[in-house]
Amino acid sequence: MAGQGSGGNVIAALCNIFIPGLGQLIQGRIMMALMFFLVCTVSYGLAATVIFIFMWPVGAIFHLWAIIDAAKFKSSD
């Protein structure tokens, strides 16, 4: 990736809108991708059970964090 604001980062951020962690996966950051995907999926899943309805803000915060993280990523090359 060329750095913050590059076309690759924009594509990664757009991918994260649909599936949290997909943008990090495109950037080659597998552990971050897995973390964002699991936290968002579990939080949204628990919120859907109605018992843990308070979990959706956690999922939403991590979802937004995943989008911003992909957009601001600077490779260490």
Low-confidence stretches: none
Q: Mean pLDDT, rounded to whole units?
A: 89
Number of strands: 0
Helix content: 55-70%
Q: Tell me, briefly, the overall form.
A: elongated
Helix-and-strand structural type: mainly alpha
How far apart are the termini? 9 Å
Largest sheet: none
Radius of gyration: 13 Å
Element order, helices and strands? HHHH
So how many helices? 4
Topology, please?
Elements: H1 7-18, H2 22-26, H3 30-48, H4 56-71
What does this structure look like?
The chain has 77 residues and is mainly alpha-helical. The relative contact order is 0.22. It is elongated, with a radius of gyration of 13 Å. It has one domain. α1 (7-18) packs antiparallel against α4 (56-71) and α3 packs antiparallel against α4. It is 68% helix and 0% strand. The chain crosses the membrane at residues 6-26. Keywords: Membrane, Transmembrane, Transmembrane helix.
Short description:
With 77 residues, this protein is mostly helical. It contains four helices and no strands.
Pick out its properties.
77 residues; mainly alpha; 68% helix
